[in-house]
Amino acid sequence: MLNEYDNANDRTENFNKHREVMSDFSIATLIRASDYINRLSLFIPQDNELLDDLEEIQSPLMEVIEKLRTNEECPHCGGDLFMSDLPQYDCVCPICEENF
Fold this sequence. Notes:
- The chain is an alpha+beta fold.
- It is built from three helices and four strands, in the order H-H-H-E-E-E-E.
- The chain has one domain (about 10-100).
- Helix 2 (about 25-40) packs antiparallel against helix 3 (about 50-70).
């Protein structure tokens, strides 16, 4: 249940489609996108306005990443673990792509 107003019977078709599409996004995808933006910004001159656009794109990604980050470390690679998007697991490693 999303909140106290959420009722499966009252969900619109678009809401269900939206939820299905968004389920393909994972913390690993967000981190890869953020890393790509960081690497791309290294090739752009500092006074270029494109850097501002990239920062604007990356900012919401980083907010989500930080909200999902836990204090746990991956037992395999030592990287940060994040809250899992699967109900049967507590954490996920975006590097190993393994749930714990």
